[in-house]
Amino acid sequence: MRESPPSANYIHVREPLLAPMFALAAGIVLARAAPLSFAELAFSAAGFGLLLFAARRRHSTRLTLVCTLLLSATAGAALYEFHRPPPPPSLDAASAETVILTGCVAEPPAFLADREQFTLELEPGARARVTLYLRDGEPMPRLHYGQRVDVTGRARRTRNFGNPGAFDYARWLARQNIFWTVTSSSVTPLSGECGSRYQSWLFSLRQFCLDRLDALYPHDPWASGMMKATLIGDASSLEKIWTENFRRTGTYHALVISGMHITVLAAVLLFVLRFLPLGEFGALTLAVILAWIYAALSGMGAPVVRGAGGFTLFLAARFFYRRARILNVLAAIAIAYVAFDPEQIFDPSFQLSFLCVAMIGAFAVPLLDATSAPYSRGLRWLNDTGRDLRLTPKVAQFRVELRLAAEAVSLWTRLAVRWPLAAISLLVRLVFFTWELFVLSAVVQFGLALPMIFYFHRLSWTGLTANLVVVPLMELVVPAGFLAIATGWSLPAQAARFCLWLSRCVVDAHVNLETGFRIPDPPVWLAIVFSLGLLLGFAGMRRKTRWRWAALALAVAAFATMLIHPFPPAVAPRALELTAIDVGQGESLLVAFPDGQLMLVDGGGIASFGNRPRHSNLDIGEDVVSPYLWTRSIRRLDVIVSTHGHDDHAGGLPAIIDNFHPRQLWTGATPETTAWKNVLQHAARAGTQVKPWRAAAAFDYGGAHIEVLSPPSDYQPAATPHNNDSLVLRLTYGTQSFLLTGDSERQMENTYTVLPTSVIKLAHHGSRTSSTPHLLDAAHPAFALISAGFENSYHLPHPAIIAELEDRHVQVLRTDLDGLITIRTDGRRIQAYTYHPRQ
Fold first, then answer.
1. Taking the alpha carbons of 194, 196, 201, 207 in that order, is the dihedral positive or negative?
2. How far apart are CA 445 and CA 359, in angstroms?
3. Is 178 strand, coil or helix?
4. Whole-angstrom Cα distance, residue 765 to residue 758?
5. What is d(CA 330, CA 355) in angstroms, rounded to the nearest whole number?
6. Using CA atoms, how far apart are residues 813 and 790, in angstroms rounded to an integer?
7. Of 16, 207, 208, 581, which has the most beta carbons under 10 Å away?
8. What pLDDT is attached to residue 785?
């Protein structure tokens, strides 16, 4: 009997959750961009519900689908509005005031080289990140989770750098209920305990694992720190330099704790549990429980939690004998997590994780199914000739040819056939495994290009081959490392360390092949073209349409354009521009010349306190200055100026030199310190010409005139950097001029003549040691620009200097209050813009 044809209204969808997932995400994005009231959402839901009812009555499948998607989008908007965070809590104290805070240690402390950090919960939903600095030789207190303490210190509300393209650090902390940072020198333990018993047990287990790793690698901080980060997710002992090459080669994902760890551990667990009398249901249940315990042990980081959720859903589908399609499982996980926390959709980690799996399901799996996957499956039970009849002709012929090759080897070597057959099978499996890793790496690198460029401004060429070695090695590190933690045996610990060391060798060898140039932000239209090309290519591949290759070609063309980035820097033509970048308590100035040349004066940095160096994983040059330059489509700088060698001016220069390969590095009087030698080494690698300047030099550059006012020609720097080493420049364009003073103090200000100047960048962040009344009267500026950190511990700019400027009716612009400051002139008129408008 013939089957009746399907109804015209019937639509077959292999992944029915994909479209609702996209609609839900669209509703969340819409609600964030344009907040909606609950009345508006209820009215929309009622209208779309009535349309859905009418569509079902008319048996209109397409209208039903459209109404369902609109209802999903409305649900997404409602979820976002429901989960919209309340106003942040407040402290009954002025910002930066010294306070005594009583609370509960909500996260165990992380011990760093010169400080201790922990999270203090003041009340539910209100936490502070405490950094404890002690005097030299004073031991750090041993704090633990659930301990009540008094903390004495200065509390500041979390704040972002005021630049376009800056990372939203305050929002990231707020998602962890952290609203203040506290700098403290005194912590007093109190009696009594707080927190939950479950968390206490979990942190005790976590601390046991960390202590065991310290014991396994007693004299190897690199191995101990790397293993802690890889297995437990504790990066407190991790030095940035250890992982930089992993980032540059696109292999960092294999190093940090992620869903891959869940996959590897789950596979090992399921293999071991097969030998226990648990049955399939018991083994699957225990594997899921252990996966979630590991997720909690590692700190419940978003990637590993999503990995545990995906593993749970996958095993549930397997238990009910359902075929788990990757994209449908991915959509189900996304809907579940977004429904619980809609803000996750804006998290880069969330986007990268789901886009990675989506690219595998949408492109890598179909490509492998069309190439190696059938033959790889055909290698099972290769000596069983009866299986050939149940396979496709090509796969069956492949199996026959392998057996014939094994028989030929057997006749030649006089070995039993099973040995050559096993060897050939292993060799072919290795070839297929390498091919599959290459395809997965290439597809994922291509699919993640847009977010990788947008968030990290890098795309690795060598990751395609580096991942072929690093990923398998790191997959061995995970089970070996946990076996060492569980047993305390040295053998698996050293095996894991060897795999780590070998991974580092592979990465170090690949990093030499990287170009070193970073990629600026792509235009919005190009990002849209690339995304549409991928979506249309995916749809075309599913329906096998003729235009699928055209869509993929469009995505490839957009990809190549993003890499080449043929777009000029975003600067005003025929204008002289001075932009003060908000780098906190430091200084970095961008100068755009009328003819298009670009100069960066200083690169910011973290200031040191006395003889104690500051250890921080925040690199101002890499994490603050460079992202702003990339938002302006800047790929290369013509000149970098290092006014003097203090860390808050020169600390960010090595990263900036690496990222922007300047043609010249201008310097003043700079002592040959270790930090300055490091800057020179980076300049030499970048092919940058180093050019020292002294007073009385004057020349034209970029359509403007430059005068060097300081240091004097006979000035000799001391063994360590000083403020008076500063290179002082005066830039003139038409009738307007800018005076850039570095950190020079009054003694040096008296050595040079100052002409009337439109804009003066105040020396030493507005300190009383500089900007004398004589200088201000001679310069007679219209604008005074001050680079200083928000509520900095030096209390700069000094109120007396501000009063001097106000008495002279000078417009004061400050990065601590205004954020990024841009002053631009066409040679006659002058305009000023700030990132944060004054209230």
1. negative
2. 9
3. strand
4. 18
5. 10
6. 13
7. 581
8. 97
From 532, 523, 592, 525, select the one nearest 564 (Cα to Cα). Answer: 523
SS3 content of the chain, % helix, strand, coil (to 5): 50, 15, 35
Degrees (nearest 5) of the Cα angle 559, 563, 565?
Answer: 110
Query: What is the spatial distance between Cα 452 and Cα 347, in angstroms, rounded to a whole number?
Result: 13
The string of pLDDT tens digits covering residues 48-93 is 888 888 877 777 778 888 888 899 899 999 999 888 888 888 888 7
Residue 724 is predicted with a pLDDT of 94
- Average pLDDT (225-242) is 80
As a whole number of angstroms, the distance between CA 264 and CA 452 comes to 25
The arithmetic mean of pLDDT across residues 594-611, rounded, is 86
Provide the pairing of β-strand 821-825 with 830-834: antiparallel
User: What six digits make up the tokens of 110?
Assistant: 């992380």
CB 631 within 8 A of CB 590: no
Residue 191 burial (C-beta neighbours within 10 Å; 0-12, 13-18, 19+):
exposed
User: Closest Cα to residue 341, out of 76, 711, 63?
Assistant: 76
pLDDT band, residue 523 (cuts 50/70/90) = very high
Helix (H, G, I), strand (E, B) or coil at 450: helix
Higher pLDDT, 281 or 462: 462
Q: Mean pLDDT across the stretch 563-590?
A: 96
* Token pair recorded at residue 279: 């049955």
pLDDT digits (tens, 9 = 90+) for 791-808: 888 889 999 999 999 999
Give the residue among 531, 608, 620, 602 at the shortest CA–CA distance from 240: 620
